Structures are given as C-alpha cells and as structure tokens.
Amino acid sequence: MIDSTLFRCLPRLAVFLLFLSLGHLVAQPTPLPLMPPTPLTRTYSVEQLRADFRLMRRAMEEAHPGLYRYHSRDSVSRWFDAAEATLNHPMTELQFRRAVEPAIDRIGCGHTDLYGSKAYVKYRKKHPTRPFPVDVFVLDDKLYVRENRSTDTTVRRGAQIVAVNGRPAGTLLKQFYKYISSDGYNQTFKPYVLNTGLFNSYYALAIGLDSTAQQLTLRDSTGAVRTLTFRVRPDKLKLAADSVEKRVIPASKPRKPKPRNPEKPEEEPRTLTFSERDSTMAILKVSSFTGGGQRSFFRQSFKAIARHKTITSLVVDVRGNLGGNSGSSVKLVSYLVAKPFQAYTQVDAPVRQVSFNRHLGWKFWRFWIRNFFTHKTPEGTYRRSGVVGQIKPTKRNGFRGKVFVLTNGGTFSAASIFASLVKHNAADRVTVVGRETGGGAFGCNAFTSPYMTLPETGVQLRLPLYKIVLAIPGVDKGRGVLPDVPVAYTAPDILSATDVDLEKVYELLKK
Fold it and tell me: Strand locations in 400-470, DSSP E?
C-alpha cells in the first residue's frame, strides 16, 4: 500500500516540479536571429571556388589572345596550378580574388584583371572602406604623405612613411603590385594606379577588409623617425573608390594654362592652350581617348594652331591617358606625320565564337563584330577587317613642326599606341619626354574587352579578345614606350605640383 502521507504530498510535489520546469524554460536565453551574410562576409565552398577558377582558366586558355605573349605555356600553367592549389578552404569573395589575382598579374596584360561582383560593388557604395589617416603618394617605390587627414597636426606633407602597422612600406608596395596587372614587364603603371586614389582599396584587398592604419612610422625632413597612432578627422574623410572613375567634360576652347599636378589624371579629357612663356609653342592635352567629339576636337584644335603663324612647336600631353578608342589615337597620329603609315600588322582573336558565351558580356557588340567585321587568316586566327592598311596623313592643317610627347606610367592602351606610332613614324620631329609608358610599346591585348561573370562568386574577369601588334620595327621585349628625354620627379616637385616635364620642354627649346 502507498503511504498516506506521501499520497497527500503528491499534489504539492507536482506543483513544485511544474514551477521548477517553467522556471527552467524562462531562464533559457532567447536565441538571437542570425544576421544574413553580406557580400563581404559570405563564404564560398571549395567546390564553388574551384568551379569558378576552372571556368576562368578555361576561358583564358581558349580565348585570351596574349596569354603566352611574354611567357611560355608551361610557365602560365604552373602559375594557374599553384593558384588553384590555394583554394583548399572556404573563402570570401575578397579572399578568392586575393588568391587568384597574382597569377593573372604575372601574365603581363594590363587589360586582364579581376573586379568585384555586382553585389560587392553595390555594397561598397553604401559601406565604403574606412579612409586612411593620410593621403599618400608613391615615388621611387617609397611612400610619402600628400595630405594629413588625422588629428595630429605635427604630421607634415612630404614625410616618408617607413611602415604601416609595423609592415615596411616597401614590403606593402610589393604586395600591392601583385594585384595590379600591367603590360609585359612594365613597372611604371603600378605606382601610377596607386597614385590615382586607390591606395586605400588595395590596402583593403591585400591586408584585409576595412583595415585602417592605426600606426604609421614616419621619417621627417630631418631624418627623425617616430611611430604615431592616428584617428581620422571627420571633416577630412575621403572615402576610397573601388575603381578608377573619370568625369568626362566636353573639351573647351583654347585657354590659358592653370597649375596642375602632372602625376594625377585631368578631369577635362581634351584641351588646347597656347603658352604664355613661349609664343612659338602650343599645348594639346589629351587626358582620354574615350567619349564623343574627339575627331571634331582634333580638327578644330589643329585649325586653331594653323591660324597662329608663330607656332613652330607642339606639346602633346598624354600623361594619365588610360586609353579608349584606338581609332581616335591613330587619327591624332595622322595630324603629326608627313608620310602614309601602317598602324597595325594584326588585330587578331584566337577564336571567332567562345564556348562560354553565356557568361561573357557585350553579346550584341561581339556578335556584330565577329560576323561582319572579322575574317579568318591563313594562320587560323580571326582578324578585324580593314585594320592593317596604309593610313594617309591629314594634310589640311596637319602640323609639321617640332613635337614633344609627354608620357608617364598612366599613358596606357590607346595612348601608348599613339606615343609609339608617332615616335616611330616622325622620328626626326618627335621627342618623347617623361617616363616609360604604362602600355606596351609594341601593342597590347584589347580592342574588345568585355567582362566575364563567374557564376558562383559573381567575380568579374575583364577579358580582352584581340591581340594588337603595332607596325613598328624591333622586337617586343615587354616594355613600354621609352622616353627620349627621361625626367625624374622628387617629392617636393609633386607636393608643389611643379610640371617638371613641361619645364624640360622649355629647356630643350632654349637649346
């Protein structure tokens, strides 16, 4: 029999156990909802990463016209194999790009590069990378302060940045250069890119997301070295962009020159000025070969030059000109040469139709070109029609005086084509002044360069489809157009916006 006392206690015991159970449930913390991953934090599996990489590799091996332009097939294959081997654990989109881009950079094609997915770019517009404490510039593989954005007023413009968070500046730059593609073995294009305001973006790409320098080791003009901790002044924020963007402003009428920084790109794509210091000199600044109205601008400019009977020398400034329409650059050459010339020996694609067409952009434009403006060569490539013929000089208002072409690492693509062709077809009258061009002296891979979207990560690959070979003598050694008169800048020159290249031209004219 059940003990009567225990029987009487059962209801109370049940109530106690019920309250104890409810108390246990109440004491458990409510689980917080999981935040959805952002384009910065979302990770992709090894299978997804390798699927995208293999598609990208197959596309380049099938259709890239200059994949083996400067390196052997075996070398390129080894670089690709090594890059794929690093894709052995889940990664974010940025980590994927960080792992793959060095292999692409080694190919030696400035028109081939990886860009963020559309989701990544959209997110970055709303959530930009945090700004660097100082605005910097690169000179001779050293890092300097251009402007101080921090609250520490003792930091002076021109101070050398020795290290960032303990990392030597030289080591950082070498790491950044692995993610900047350039033509052949050229090295002037890489620092130029960093000097266009993209240092912050490459710092984030190479070091980590939203990495902001907390400590900078600086060397001042006296040689004293100190390490400082920074925070950014809110009124000095300059948020970094994820790509080079240039406003296109219609070309203006000839006007007086204004002070400018020769190592930074101009906003106005084309201007004509007449020198106040030398009445015999005109200055044609062509910052871009993109946009409409180029031929009209050239026609009006050379007409204006012809009206000034005192003009015997012309400066054509293509520093910071990242290219555009190569037809426009060749047209500009025609105003400066006296004899017919040939621009290209080939503009060839290895295939007519790519097997990965659904992933590649510019479908209508590519369809139009390959079906109506391409023909097969005896070598089995597909050449753009009408590009290898002779080009007549423009006789009406063509300039036949002394020409100085100003170049630097930002003279790229169509601008480098212009510099190379005009130098070799009017060698007796043309002098190139400045630094080696960022674009190849014997051509590049371009003409049509659509973007390929990798289906898993959304990362975009810029893929040129035509190999351009210029009709100039010599052997392509993977260098840019070398200046006849080299000019070197110092840090004070850049900080004071002194146009050392133009000063050199005035000096040459005096001689």
Answer: 402-407, 430-434, 445-446, 451-453, 460-462, 466-470
Distance CA 36, CA 368 (A): 42
Asked if 323 contacts 414 with a C-beta cutoff of 8 angstroms, the reply is yes
**Does 22 have pLDDT greater than 70?**
no
Q: Compute the C-alpha angle 270/403/395, nearest 5°.
A: 80
For 97, counting Cβ atoms within 10 Å of its Cβ (0-12 exposed, 13-18 middle, 19+ buried), the class is: buried
Please answer whether residues 31 and 410 qualify as being in contact, where contact means their C-beta atoms are separated by less than 8 angstroms.
no
Residues in the chain: 511
C-alpha closest to that of 322 among 246, 250, 430, 262: 246
Q: What angle do CA 251, 257, 258 make, to 5 degrees?
A: 100
- The CA distance from 262 to 406, in Å, is 10
Are the C-beta atoms of 480 and 188 separated by less than 8 Å? Answer: yes
DSSP letters, 197-250, are IIHHHHHHHHH-TT---SEEEEE-TT--EEEEE--B-GGG--PPPSS-------
Please state, in angstroms and rounded to a whole number, the distance separating the CA atoms of residues 469 and 188: 21
pLDDT in tens, 240-279: 333 332 222 223 333 333 334 544 544 578 999 999 999 9
> How far, in Å, CA of 377 to CA of 356, rounded?
23
Beta bridge partners of 348: 383, 467
Sign of CA dihedral 289, 111, 91, 216: negative
Q: What share of the chain is helix, strand, coil (3-state, %, to 5)?
A: 35, 20, 45
Structure tokens at 280: 């015999």
Pairing of strands 402-407, 313-317: parallel
Q: How far apart are CA 64 and CA 354, in angstroms?
A: 10
Token look-up 């002098």 returns 431
194, 179 contact by CB (below 8 A): no
Contact 240, 200 (CB under 8 A): yes
d(CA 510, CA 252): 30
Q: Please report the pLDDT score of residue 282 as a whole number.
A: 97
Q: Is residue 204 predicted with pLDDT exceeding 90?
A: no
Residue 216 sits at φ, ψ, to 5 deg, of -125, 135
**d(Cα 163, Cα 208) in Å, to the nearest integer?**
17
Q: Contact 47/84 with Cβ under 8 angstroms?
A: no
pLDDT above 90 covers a percentage of the chain that reads 73
Find the radius of gyration of the CA atoms of the chain. Answer: 29
Q: Residue 497 corresponds to which amino acid?
A: A
Q: Which two tokens stand for residue 300?
A: 């009006």
Per-residue pLDDT tens over the stretch 402-455: 999 999 999 999 999 999 999 999 999 999 999 999 999 999 999 999 999 999
Tokens of 170: 């030289």
Tens-place pLDDT, residues 27-36 = 455 555 567 8
Distance in angstroms (rounded) separating the CA atoms of residues 200 and 508: 38
